[in-house]
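Lab notebook, bench 4. We co-purified these components, and the gel suggests they stay together. Before we commit to crystallization screens, I want a quick structural picture of the whole thing.
Request: model the full complex, all chains together.
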Amino acid sequence: MSQETPAARNIPALLAALHAEKRSGAVLVSGTPGGVIHVRDGMVVGMETPGAPGVEVLLLKSHRITEDDWTAARATGTDPARLGLELVAQGLLGARELEVIGQAALFDAAFALALTSPDGWEMTAPRPLLDTGAAIPPDRLVTENTRRIRLLSNERGATARFARDRPDPAPAARDPQRTARLSPRHRTLLTAADGRRTPRDIAFTLGRGLFAVMLDLRDLLALGLLQSPSVTLAGRPSTAPRTPLSASTATPQPSATPLPRRKP
Amino acid sequence: MALLDTVLSTVGKTSGVTAAALLDGVTGLSYAEYGAPEPAQDAQEIAHLAVMHLNRAGFTGELESIVVTTAAHHHVTTRVDRQGDPLLLFALVDRDRTNITWALRDLAEHTDRLLS
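Here is the predicted assembly.
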């Protein structure tokens, strides 16, 4: 059910207005990637977007929770909102660990949404959300997103382009002496970055946050173990300056033999 | 109060600790804070730089802790292991109220219990 949406020029302004009015509901954000922002009493309590892994992906793909345990917890008929608490009650996950994962997923979704401009938004009644105990004031999301973009490139457009890149291993990545010094986290990432996956794809594959993956990819690029696709892209138009051909490759000069003449 | 804030309050009761923060070991995101831990904002970047430089020098293990000492404080950053990306427990320790050995021992106990 649609609710009255406060007039706002962008999502942060909308969330600030909802915070001031202590409103509750769900903000449906359209566009790419789009998503849902869950607001309770003016605080942001959750975000879901296809642009970044959510709580479920972080729990399952990182193998903190097995698929069987997850399915069993869901089969108990627990309210979806209390599924996290059910996992804690069953001793499968610590309550503090759930809170950490909930906050991490929320800030990561906010980062993914901040990389592009949305097509629009609409306020609706509250929607079901896996409750992790997170409750973040909107201004903190803005501050954190600014910090994240500064850390990666200091410019939103460049960060968004990096998020769409598909880095692949550089020749140095085949040198065991170079890779032996990497942390296990970086080594796993190096294996996952195969030139076909974007940072988002890698984040979903490994069950890690999008921003965390981008930071580690930046490290591997800086170490020369990964290369940006623009380095390896074949067949693109040459942008090299045009220079006269050298004498060895130039068109041969006419030989001393005169050209044949037509005789009337 | 969130559970993590409660845990940080307990850390704050440690002798000599005037501020504390629980940070993400990769992103630097602060999950919970006690007191006014402004120096924590740079703790993750300092830890990251230390690891990268140590790796370049041939070190292959995981970083356990970093202590930065100023005239008045010890800035203690301790790694909190967990499945997935690690966390960092940052504590600002008043040099006049405790010594670094006691502080490290107490913080190690907190680190072990942090996510239990």
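Strands of chain B lie at 17-24, 30-34, 65-69, 73-80, 87-94. Worth comparing against the SEC data before the next meeting. The radius of gyration of chain B is 13 Å.
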